[in-house]
Amino acid sequence: AQRVTQPEKLLSVFKGAPVELKCNYSYSGSPELFWYVQYSRQRLQLLLRHISRESIKGFTADLNKGETSFHLKKPFAQEEDSAMYYCALSPSSNTGKLIFGQGTTLQVKP
Amino acid sequence: NAGVTQTPKFQVLKTGQSMTLQCAQDMNHEYMSWYRQDPGMGLRLIHYSVGAGITDQGEVPNGYNVSRSTTEDFPLRLLSAAPSQTSVYFCASSYSKGVPTYEQYFGPGTRLTVT
Q1: A23 partner at 20 to 30 Å CA-CA among A32, A69, B52, B62?
Q2: Do A44 and B90 touch (CB under 8 A)?
């Protein structure tokens, strides 16, 4: 079965602390994985994708096929990082379908 | 470009009523999708389309119909509203021929309450 699991509903950290939002997936093929973010009163938007291997707003995510994980990390959290984060998997690149995890709310306290 | 637009922003329905949520995009995207967002469940795919005239079911299609007569529009119809359909609905689009990026662009959402 194709599934994305984000085990934490809420992650609360202080400003300047490291952040790791966990994401595990279940998929038999070679997945395309993404992190989407929804800031308060804004649209859901792409944060990063695993094939780009890029760092966006200080966030990085590495695909670990052995552990079937795609955790999102940032060494020093900022208050403006507070948002809802969704991990998503694309089971097929020619349909536009995404399978989302349950989402994790990141709260960065001053 | 306006991107992905959705109307209405808010809607209250009584059980048994029908309505259509509108979604339009002006990016010439081939793929369009409808998701519902519920607390603790993330976003779940309702229906999707890979092009005009082609639609398919997602994870939670029951109680919803879609059609795709043009590339730009992808309306979602609730046939007979039920309280379980109270949710926030998001439309998304992606992929333009000649610019093959699969990033999905989301609309602002429609908050639907069924009483």
Answers
A1: B62
A2: yes
